[in-house]
Every structure is written in C-alpha cells, then in structure tokens.
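User: quick one
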Amino acid sequence: MAHAHSHDHDFHHEQGSELSEMQLRTRAIETILLEKGYIEQAAIDELIETYEKKIGPRNGAQVVAKAWVDPKFRKWLLEDGTAAIGSLGFGGRSGNHLVALENTPSLHNMVVCTLCSCYPWAVLGLPPLWYKSAPYRSRAVADPRGVLKDFGIELPKDTEIRVWDSTAELRYMVVPMRPAGTEGWSEEKLAELVTRDSMIGTGFPKSPKDLK
Amino acid sequence: MNGGQDIGGMDGFGPVQPEPNEPVFHSQWEKRAFALTLAAGVAGGWNIDMSRFARENRPPNEYLTMSYYQIWFAALEAMLKERALVSDDEIAVGQALKAPKPVSCILRADDVARVLYHGGPTERETKTKPAFKAGDRVRAKMMNPVTHTRLPRYVRGHLGTIDRVIGCHVFPDSNAAGAGENPQWLYTVRFDGGELWGADADPSVTVSVDAWEPYLLPA
Amino acid sequence: MAYDQHDHDRFELSETQLRVRALETVLTEKGYVDPAALDLLIETYETKVGPRNGARVVAKAWTDPPYRARLFKEATSAIAELGYAGRQGEHIVALENTPKRHNMVVCTLCSCYPWPVLGLPPVWYKSAPYRSRAVADPRGVLKDFGITLPKDTEIRVWDSTSEIRYLVVPMRPPGTEGWNEDKLAELVTRDSMIGAGLPKSPKDVK
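Assistant: Done. Structure below.
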C-alpha cells in the first residue's frame, strides 16, 4: 500500500524522502496529462512564470502607496476595492472581489483563511507557507495577539483587532498606516516601505530609517 | 485544549474497521508500554487527568497519525521527563545515568491485584447542593481552555437536558493542571441530534455527555 | 484513503520498540517499577479480565429479575457482587436496550471503557472513525457492523467524558427459554455490550 508520507522517527515528515516521491509523482502526472493532450506545456510554463515573477506583493505595495498620497483614490479603494485596484491594472484570478481594510491608530486588521489558504493573489501573489499552515490558520481567529507576538509585534491593549476569515470569494488586503517621517515622498519610494506582511495584517510597513 | 483528540463529529476518517479475533496487545512493546504506564504512574504520582492531558498535548497531526500505544508511550516519556525522573540521554542509551529521585510509593507485584481492584474512584463528599436537577434545560458553555477539559467542542454552546444528577466528582480541568481535585457536581446531559448537527440530522438520535457543573449554564 | 492504524504502526515499530525497552530498563534500574508487577499487569488484562465478565453480568440480568433491578439501580455494586470491580469501572451505569431504544457507548476524547467487565478496549473503539462518527452518525456506524435498526428505534449515544463507565445490557435473544446463565453468557458478545453489536442467536451457537 502506497504511503503518502514517510515515517521519520520523530513523527515529522522528513523533507528529503518525501520530496523525491512528490517529484516523481508530479513528473509522472505532468507527462501523462501532456501525452493525453489535456494540458499544454507552454501554458504550464507561463503559469509558473506569472506567479514566480510577474504577480507579487509589489502590486499591493503600489496600491497602498497610492492610497497614502491620493485621498480620492484612498476613498475609492475603501469603498470599492476591486474597481480601484483594477484601475491600476491588477485584478483577475483571486482578485475579482477585493476589499481593502483600513488600519487606524485604534483598529488593526488581520486576514486569514482558516479553511484553506484564500489570499488576494492579484495584489500579493501566492501566499507564503506560514499563511497556509496550521499554526496561523488555527490561532489567528482565537489568539491574534499571540500570533502578532510570533511576528514580534505588540499592539496597545485597547487597539481593536479585527480578524477576517476569508470563507467566501472576497479577498482582503490590509492598508497599513503610513509611517511617520515620509512627508513629500514619491509613490515609488513609499511603495518600498510596504511589506507583504503589513498587507496581511501580521506586520507593519518599514520606517524611513529601515531604508538606508 | 482544542486538540487532535476532540474529534466528535469530525469527517474524513473512513469506516469503522473492527479486527476479527483481535489480540489484547498487538506486540510485545505494547504490553510493556501499557504496564509501564500504569506502574510508573504510581511512582510518578501523577493523576489520570494529567495522563490524559499529556496524551492530548501534541500537534494534532501527530496525535491523529500515532497509534494508541505510541500516544500512551509518548505521554509517559513526557510526564517522566517533566518530573525529572528520567532524561532523554538515559532513554537513548537505555541505562540509568543519574541517581533516582526518591519517590513515595512504587507498585509491587503483590500490590497489583489489590490496586487494580480498588481502582481510583472519583466521587467525593460535599456540603454543596447541585445547581441542576433531572429534567432541567441547560446550555453547555462556550469555553475554549488551552488546558485539559472534558467538554467536547461538538456540544459547546448547545442546549440540552439534565438526564441524571450523578454525584460530586473530581474535576478534571483542575486536577490535570495540578490545581487540586476541586470536586464538582457531575451530570449526564442529553442533547437532541438536531440541536448538535442541524435540521438534516437523524431525528431518532440523541447524544449525552457527562458534564461537570462549571461546564453548564441554566438555559 | 481509509485510515489504517496498523500499517503505519509497522513502520514506526523498531524505534518505538527500542525506546520502550530502554525506558523499562531505566525505570527498573532506578527502582521506580517492579518487573514482576509489570508482568502481572500484562497477565491480568491479557488473560484474566475480559468481556466474559460482562457476559456473565448480562446473562444474570436476563435470568434473575431482582439482580436485573439492582443492576439498573446501581450497577457498580451489582457488578461487584460477581467479583468484578476496580480500575476504570469504579462508577458503572448499566444501559437497558429495549425494542424501542438502542444504546451505544463511545469516548470521543480518548478511549474510556469499562475495563472490569469488558477488559481493554479494541483498537476500533479507540480509533478516529468510531470516535468521530458514533456521536454524529450512529446508524452509519452500526452499518459498518452490519446492523440496521428500524427507523423509529431511538438511538442513545453516550459519550464517556467522565469516570462514569457504561455497560449496555442487550436484549435477550428469542428462543433461549430455560437456558442456564452459562449458556446464555455465550451469546453475549463484547460488541453487544458496547452497543455496536447484537448478541448471538441460538443458531449461532450450535
């Protein structure tokens, strides 16, 4: 009987032996699907290229930077995320129903998908492993302050924390607060401060001194 | 804790698979693990609620893929190490490397029959009166302790009926945490299948749990 | 993929075997356990305490109405009359199956089971499929055991969350009039005392 996982003595999955089994199986499936004409090689390659290189958190950083400098865009973003983000050329798969969440001094937003890994691909690319894994998925809804601690963050006791469990097709992105000391900065320069984690709600943007 | 052990109502495990003519133990090591757990419990001085917590207290993916006695054995190791009675390096070489700590009692062969026959009754005297009586409607609390509890998730927040007032018994939530026996009134609470599982549930099914008073609110 | 304890167990075996042996050695060397006590514990549950005990309780309940009454009033003492008592059976409640009501016992959270009358629980009782489904779909579980009850039979599932231990008293099979307790006890299966089975019928015991 084939086992989907190896049997390391510590009951953890041993990366080495698991990898080769998965490599073989993926290669086998890909070959069969190609041979049967169900998929096209070039399309597979393009999909990988798109999400490895073309779509990523730099998209979301652009959105946030624009919201920081342009009050009309900010208002539009918070009222109709899909349209506002779409106007910058970002959208499509996992970006059809985007909602922007505004962090304020009294309110901190955090996004999770407890049931799987729903994530706003259009603005953030593919989710990191920690976002898709059990520790974050299980604890974000029960103990968000504990999770923030894992990220080295402690918020004031009276900050409201809103956790958003992405159970439908709505995808959430957090608009963090603009760091102090960035008056007059260009959108491009501001975008460099916006981290991926700050748009999930598990981090803050960088501060000007981090950018030396 | 909301761990891998709290699986009432969880899906995906497949059919129940009884083994015909199943032996009591499936291997030599299982027998030893079983006996060691019972005997070391006497020396180690932990209570059954602590044992149960030690078994549950691991990542759910491990709990759900370890066999029954693997879990028992892992919990035994953890409890012994917690109390500095054995260490990892001793287990690694299979030899005592440090002098034993004094323990108040060990289980001798001559004690076995008597100790097993006596067991560990949990009913305790009390001067308090039970808050509920048979027939009362109660609501299981919404509570999510990270420590040991015996209120399964599938009943929390649900409305049930007191089936029976059982008596005053050691309270596992306290006992497992080393906070003393703290005996509480214990009840059998019965829930309609529909209450637990929804409108599509089998109307002929009811489910009961035995719940201590701190788990319950008047409905 | 159906969850299979035993396949998984085979792979982990040698490491666990070694650790168990190692721990036993360490505990013995330190004087924390007595090897003779260990052997006796194993022998007790391998050979002395088992479902034959519960079968005797049930057979007596079938033939002795005052005993039956005592059993349902206060099972722990009624069972102790037959010499069965102790660990994991300090507080037993007997559950009566009737034509209208079928009882089923589970421990969703671990494996609580009435040792003095049934011995140690079988692997299926302790495993995820039973623990997860008994409370949600008892009829589905009974189907896994080849049993279909009438739609209007009430099914009471008892989740053993405390130290109370439950023993199902199945209904006496028809065609056993005049049978003595010993012969009746042969019909009482372990599964029928958990509520995952029914007793054998006279023709099964030819």
